[in-house]
Amino acid sequence: MIYLFYTEDSAGNIEIVTCPDEFNYLDTFYKIEAEGRIVPYDIHWHGDTHTPAMRILAVSTVNSDFSQQIRQIITQCQLWRRQN
Questions:
Q1: Cα(82)–Cα(52) distance, rounded to whole angstroms?
Q2: Which of 56, 57, 70, 72 is most deeply buried (CB count within 10 A of its CB)?
Q3: What is the per-residue pLDDT for 75?
Q4: Alpha carbon separation from 49 to 13, 22, 55, 56 (Å, rounded)
């Protein structure tokens, strides 16, 4: 399983970084959730023949609703993984 942080700001700039492990991922998720200022999206991608399973913590700095963008976020993370 690959753990990623996906962040999008108000200008639409996207940053994707690798998270070292599940513990760090969950710790970050719970901290963001506890602050209550931003809504984190915990996306589980089970993988396919080209991309391994991923767990993506998606955060918008302007509280964008990512519920309709999940497929695009997964696609962007797949492309990022291939390039890195």
A1: 11
A2: 56
A3: 93
A4: 29, 23, 17, 18
Question: Tokens 């991923």 correspond to what residue?
Answer: 54
**pLDDT tens figures, 31-55:** 988 887 788 899 998 988 878 899 9
| pLDDT tens column, 57-80 | 999 877 777 888 899 999 999 999
Please say whether the beta carbons of 72 and 56 come within 8 A: no
Alpha helix ranges (H) inside the chain: 22-35, 70-83
Domain with 29 in it: 2-83
Give CA–CA dist 29/20, Å, rounded: 14
Domain count, the chain: 1
Q: Tens of pLDDT along 18-35?
A: 999 999 999 999 998 888
Asked if 38 and 59 touch (Cβ cutoff 8 Å), the reply is: yes
